[in-house]
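Subject: Sanity check before I submit

Could someone independently write out the structure tokens for this chain? I want to compare against mine line by line before I put it in a report. The sequence has 674 residues.
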Amino acid sequence: MVVIYRFGAYELDLGLHELRFEGQACAVEPQVFDLLAYLIEHRDRLVNKDELNEKIWHGRIVTDASLTTAIKSARQAIGDSGRRQDFIKTLPRRGFRFTADVEVQALTTIEAAPPNVALPPDAPKPVLQSGAKIAGHGGRKYWIVAAVFGLLVAGGMALWSLGQIEKPSIAVMPLKNLSDDKDQEYFADGMTDDLITRLSQIDGLFVIARNSTFTYQGKNTEVQLIAKDLGVRYVLEGSVRRSAGKVRINAQLTDGNSGGHVWAEIFDREAKDIFTLQDEVTTKIVTALRLKLTTDEQKKIAKTTTKNLQAYDLYLRARKAHFSQLAPPLRQALKLYKRATDLDPEFADAYAGEAAIAVFFARYNLFQALSPAAALRRAERAIANALEIDPNHGGALAAKSSLLTTLGSHEEAIATARRAVGDNSTNVSARRTLAVALYVSGSVKEGLAEIEIALRQDPRPDKYGSFRTGEAYFLNRNYGLALGFFRRALLLDPKYFQAKNGLIISYAQLGQIAEAKQTVEDSIKAWPPFNVQAMALHRDFWARGVLDHWIGALRKGGTPEWPFGVSFDEVNRLKGAELEALFLGHQIEGVSQQWGAFSVEISADGIWKWKNKGITLTGKGEVDEDKLCYVHDKGLPSRKQCMPYYRNPSGTREKKNEYVNPDAYDVYWFSVVD
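---
Independent answer below. Compare away.
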């Protein structure tokens, strides 16, 4: 059973391992959560210190001061205090008791829906489709269930098995930056990433992905709780200090079961020997875990893609910006990657990073960062450069697959993504790229299977991974699970616009139309032109069936069809012959809601030039049935937009508003002037 305890304005969800206040998830340390859960579960009696030592601290003796701090944190998490003791009462020298009234809701484990989500009677039951084994915990087999995985998702996880773990498993925590310069955090993060990458090359070791381990960055979480949360046996912690041309790494490996140290060492090296240092640390970890490496694995973990220290430093800075997944830092990352490859033209990793960002800009029409046409050319060059250096480079192949998907070349995109995954099953990014290539092509079940494999390696996905996981579940009609992942994405980034789309479509399909419409209103406040056609344009490479499923749910949720909620009377719509007579060989002038005054010159053969005060676009147009279709020089060549045009009954030539047409981003009023 999945149990939810409700008291006051709070909910403690044991299935999701989540504390909520008025429906919103609250940040709470895992140990504090466990303490609250235990006190509430045993609210009918007094709980003493010895019992808490045994159940919460697993038999480890804690001081009175530590226990007092833990109780204080638990009270603060639910708005209580030692003075008021509204929820948790202390009986001096005797123990503690949870005294508030508690309402208990119990849900069946397999059918448990997200909070406040009613699954329709015909909704498919949420199931994990793949039952493959995963690595970890040397020889010990066990199932990771919702009590662990539910911690990761803001909204609705059913009880499920993430797989069996059969080989040594490790989580590499973000190395702490102890440099005097706090801006050196990118260097510490880079060292962590490189250790994860090197260890992931070892077939006999299961390594948790960086997205999951970095969720603990800056938090003082006990090693045993981390191991429990992530389902691993070993946890690597440490710090990095770079100063005066020297680098110090302090590393320690801890057994997540016992809490005992397996190995610890301090490494002091010259900064110029950083690659040798990384190799040495990796080797010591492998030795501590008693792993035997093949000759090929030894070569892989010792491999570096650049020997230029300055280029490497620029690359680490770029990676830090890249992981933000926000447009301004991504533009900066693009520049840093380029500077890195200028210094080392053989730096395949930097080319792959550049390609990934360029593909992202092209796919989502991010003109403010880089025009899609320019982004396409840049991505193609960077991919070609990386693959010339290393034909099997996973990052470059993943970027190529994403580009092929964006251009609608689905079969080639899937084949390329499979190459990106290759023999390295731990490449979570490539695995998600393969999943997207599959499900947008219409192979939704196969795409979900790949997403679920990625979840084993990355049980705490970042906002992008959470969104993609929600997308896969939505397309497989598991709307409750989809909603949970979309909620998690928004918790990680409340401004993540795509995740709001996910809420709209999930609410709509679950029959919660009021919630869907409220989310639509929120989206319009964030971006006033928000509309169905813009969201469809960003998915114009999707197979028709999956696109119709997604867009149909947007409409069902109350999303306006056109920018700014405008609508048109079909009686006033221009037909094909009227469009040809109106546009071809003529000039029009008018005003748009966003761009202001504009003009368009159109030749008899459909070549056009669009201008306003600051922008000039050129392209080719043609009439297709009762729409005018066009592509332009700064857009993707495959991205043809087809729009309807209408007479404006109240328009005049003097006001230049006799006609009106919408596109995905704006509304245009105009008249023919020549």
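---
OP: Matches mine. For the report I'm noting this point. The two ends are 73 Å apart (CA to CA).
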